[in-house]
Design a protein that fits this description.
Elements: H1 2-15, H2 19-24, H3 31-40, H4 44-62, H5 81-95, H6 98-116, H7 119-133, E1 142-143, H8 144-150, H9 160-169, E2 173-176, E3 194-197
Antiparallel strand pairs: 1-3, 2-3
Helix pairs in contact: 6-7, 7-9
Length: 201
């Protein structure tokens, strides 16, 4: 009888052991807390998308082209005649037909190359180019006077004759006296001298 009582007591104690629940049942969070944690934590896919988006923004910022005004001279506060003409040129380029816009880009590069070679080469290049753009007279020549008028914006327009003489020595132009235009004193009016372009730039 004692053995039976012991077994009964043991079975009863085992059934009511406080360790049964902790061993066989895993503790869980309340449903509300688990649901909030799932919503607040982004998935791996979402984190990858956010990372790629941040990389894309960084690349776009690095490759963003600077503003056009950052490459232009500052707007003149007190514009003189030269600056006003230069500002009009910028607007004229934007108004020009596409073929002239492309031509302006070529002229700009050529002008930069001429300036690097010194004032004399720049002046010779300017005069040769001006002559190539002036419609000649029926005899194929251009008067010095017309050249001065076309090159009036050129700083050395008044001293264009020395430039013509250098170009003549180089075989780019020929400077001819007008027929029957010699003054009684034997001095030829330089404005009436005729220029024939031999080498088109």
């Amino acid at each position: 009888m004692a053995a039976t009582s012991f077994n009964d007591d043991h079975d009863s104690a085992a059934a009511t052991s406080p360790h049964d629940t902790s061993i066989h049942e895993r503790p869980t969070l309340p449903e509300s807390i688990a649901r909030e944690s799932i919503i607040a934590s982004p998935s791996f896919h979402e984190r990858v998308i956010a990372w790629l988006a941040s990389i894309g923004k960084a690349i776009a910022t690095a490759m963003q082209r600077p503003r056009l005004s950052e490459h232009l001279p500052p707007v003149p506060v007190f514009a003189d005649e030269v600056n006003e003409r230069a500002e009009r040129i910028l607007l004229d380029i934007m108004r020009a037909p596409p073929e002239y816009v492309a031509a302006a880009m070529l002229i700009a590069r050529a002008t930069q190359a001429l300036r690097k070679r010194g004032n004399d080469v720049y002046a010779e290049g300017f005069v040769a180019f001006a002559l190539s753009r002036i419609p000649p007279d029926p005899d194929g020549t251009i008067s010095v006077k017309r050249l001065r008028e076309w090159a009036r914006a050129f700083p050395s327009a008044k001293s264009v004759v020395p430039v013509l003489l250098r170009l003549e020595q180089q075989g780019v132009v020929s400077v001819e006296a007008p027929a029957g235009d010699t003054a009684t004193s034997g001095v030829i009016d330089m404005d009436q001298m005729r220029i024939r372009l031999l080498v088109v730039p």
